[in-house]
Amino acid sequence: MHQLPLQWDLQTCFDYAKKNNIQLNTLRLSQQISKQDLLLAKAAKYPNLFGNMVQSFTHSSNTNPVVGGFATQSSFSSNYSLTSAWTVYNGGYLNYNIKLQNLDLQSAGLNVSVSENSLVLQITQDYLNILLAKENIVYVEDLVKTSQAQLDQGNQQYSAGSIARNALIELQAQNATDKYNLVSAQSALRQNILSLKQLLQLPSGYAMQIAIPDTVIATALVPSLDEVQRAALALRPEIKYAETGVDIAQMNLRLAKAQSLPVASIGTTLASGYSNNQSIEYLKQLDNNFYQRIGLTLTVPIFNNRIYKTQIEVSKIEIDQAKLSLLGAKTTLSQEVEQAYINVLNAQAQYDAAVVQLKSSQESYRVATEQFKVGAANLVDLLLQKNLYVQALQNYVQAKYNSALNIKIYDFYMGMPVKL
Fold first, then answer.
1. Which of 34, 208, 223, 244 has the most CB atoms less than 10 A away?
2. What are the Cα distances from residue 147, in Å, to 97, 185, 392?
3. DSSP-assigned letter for residue 8
4. 280-309 burial by CB neighbour count: b if 16+ within 10 A, else e?
């Protein structure tokens, strides 16, 4: 098991996920395979060399016409050889293949980056949901304390005969509702922490401790849509991934055309052997039997049942498909950025409105509470103002973190790292 941090802030979550996420590591292994394919393609430009050694023993029984019967014969022999082949011309296939494997390696790396970006946004959303739940608990705890104080005061007033029993029951019900809301808020926090743990693939029994930042920025200057769209199209890995797909398709076309061209290769062989049937000594035989061969082979494709022509036509179609995929990726990204732009404007407007609403309802609730303490307001007015305050408080907390999340998403499309 990996060493787990004592406390998790947002950057720690990013670092841990990028290092230990199973999907990312699987993609990185695919990247390593592409790297090996590139090394193999480069090595194909060089001559190969094979050594061969054969040691053989032969035994046979032949008829002896002089004395009759059979004469047994045995022999021992050795054969040694070195062979090498080198492709000197193949229409550029080897060079094109090296470029193709290099593009595949780049594509694998970009695929990792795309997955990392997606993971970062998911972690950010889950992390902010946890902060939202924590802040909500603080506010609800304060409401429980307030409603408990109001209930205590109501008990005193009921004992003194100042309020009716139904008013006391309403205070008890309100206190019970606040306590229930607190339990629900605590449950939401546990559920959000579980969601983040699952995203980070942490052990089920691990008690995750979330660091709370000093501030969460819910308002910021919003760059123009055109500016962010240009930056996203220039920087985002999904666009580079699609562009690399076009390059790969074009390189496959070059490979298909190269296969229809002649191939020239040089082959060499060095060989020698020894047999004990000869009276010549071992080293002398090896010298006498030393054999050298070098040859040039030229292979010219003449007719191959339309295989190469079909491969060329298919490669052209794949280029068109890759270009359409690139166009689709650009369109999708532009739409995502535009949606993020709209979301951040709406979220900040909602947050600004929620701040005003909270201040107003908070003051109204404070006044109603003070009036209720001195008997200047009835219970119905108090509970009405409290409900309005609770609703405004929930709207404020939700708007605050929704705005913060949408700001981070919009900045992320521009190439800015996510930070709190």
1. 244
2. 75, 17, 17
3. B
4. eeeeebeeebeeeeeeeeeeeeeeeeeebe
What whole-number distance in Å separates Cα of residue 293 and Cα of residue 153? 110
Exposure pattern of 239-251 as b/e (b: 16+ CB <10 Å)? bbbbbbbbbbbbb
Total-model pTM = 0.85
How much is the mean pLDDT over the chain?
91
Which H or E run contains 249? helix 237-259
Q: What is the pLDDT of residues 91-118, one digit of tens each?
A: 899 999 999 999 999 999 999 999 999 9
**Distances, alpha carbon 234 to alpha carbons 231, 241, 408, in Å:** 5, 12, 19
The amino acid that residue 315 corresponds to is S
pLDDT band per the 50, 70, 90 thresholds, residue 42: very high
The DSSP annotation for 357-405 comes to HHHHHHHHHHHHHHHHHTTSS-HHHHHHHHHHHHHHHHHHHHHHHHHHH
